[in-house]
Amino acid sequence: MSQSAYIQLVEGSAQPTFTLDELKEALVSYKDQLALTGKQLGWDYEDAGFPYSFETKPEGEGKWFYLKGKNSLYKYIVLGVGSRPDGSGTERSFIQVVLPDDSTHGDKAKANELCKHLGKRLKAELHLFNGRIMYFNPRK
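RE: above sequence
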């Protein structure tokens, strides 16, 4: 059975909505940060830190895409965006990160890393794969 994590944009988040293109841009920015870190270390850290390529399928166009692993330690991570009403009736955007059934332990570790990075960047509420919640948004 596949597992899902959610990054929910709540009141106090860096932005109220998030599109699929913005998600791709955020991941490319993350990949670029890893490349700069690797340059400072004198090591090709980009391939180790982000061992995926961006892939799309026609049925997911505009709704989701997946990251395909570049080596045998990683297979797939599916990412999508959406919105749903919260308890007060306000539409809230979210990012869903899905680990398909055949995902590896490496995929789960990288997915957790990506979720935490996006949660911090967006000041969002992160619902992890294990059901726990991390709050990166300013709460009163």
